[in-house]
Amino acid sequence: MKAAVVFEKGSIPQYTDFPDPEIQENEILVSVKAASIKNLDRARAGGNHYSTEHQEHQPAVIGTDGAGYLENGDKVYFFSKKGTVAEKAAADKKMIIPIPEGLDFSLAAGLPNAVMGSAMALKFKAGIQKGNTVLINGATGITGRIAVQVARLYGAQKIIVTGRNEESLQSLRELGADEVISLKMDDHDFKQKIKEIHKETPIDIVLDYIWGHSVEMILSAFKGDGNFSHKTKLINVGGMSGDAIQLSSQILRGTDIQISGSGLGSWSKAEFALLFSEIIPEMFRAAVEGKIKMETQDVDIKNIETIWNAEIQSGKRLVIRI
């Protein structure tokens, strides 16, 4: 079969012939039509993701999920640990979701990862309730844009977003954001803005995609003064602005804030099962109904080497078509 294969750690995937996947008892063969490329896939291909930290690199097909046809003709989204950017893939039988009529392969392939990075955090880590106020830090990326829409679907009353790209930031209003805050503001003004919002409509959830200095400022803005404070849950999903922060112990002692993360390894087996049985199917239906929107940049698998390090248009998910 034809596939996109990484032969050496950190090298660019090559469009080449590769052996068909061996199908185990718990797997089923999928004829792949589309597979998205995420930061996760790039990190795993380069051997830089924590899930591959202790693995010896072997030539492998890239990709972790995709969309295509089963042998009976059913259209499905699927997950696979054996690679998905190929003509054929071995899909885990427990991680297959029917694709509803009206949803094309590109969107079906591109949407689930952003759902994992938003709905899982909001539903299971933050325990979002109708009427909550949600701050999404670093919302101009693909997953952040989906998070705005998912938060609205889950009943958030007010959604505040931060970001550096002014055009992308303002466009989030069309997706459901009520207030935008530029990360280009100086520290004092940024913290003051957060304080004002938190005083007016206490923030219940902070969904963070970038970590780093912006989180330090947000936590500083929440710092209590010895009086009773509002309960806020800060859920980290990404670390684009740095992997470490400085955190004053006074903030933890003087503020009712809970800090946790959402990602591979942080979910329970039951929660991960619900991702496939309930959450992604719900978001697929929302996409068909126009309640969830995502743009994709589709590229033929033959051009994988050219597109791998190319700049993708902001707000679009790269999808490889096979």
TrEMBL record:
Please give one Gene Ontology molecular function term for this protein.
oxidoreductase activity
Family matches, as InterPro entries: ADH-like_C, ER, GroES-like_sf, NAD(P)-bd_dom_sf, Zn-ADH-like_protein
Domain Enoyl reductase (ER) intervals: 10-320
* Pfam families reported for this sequence: ADH_zinc_N
Q: Which domain of life is it from?
A: Bacteria
Gene3D superfamilies hit by this protein? Medium-chain alcohol dehydrogenases, catalytic domain (3.90.180.10), NAD(P)-binding Rossmann-like Domain (3.40.50.720)
Q: What is this protein called?
A: NADPH:quinone reductase
Q: Which organism is it from?
A: Chryseobacterium culicis
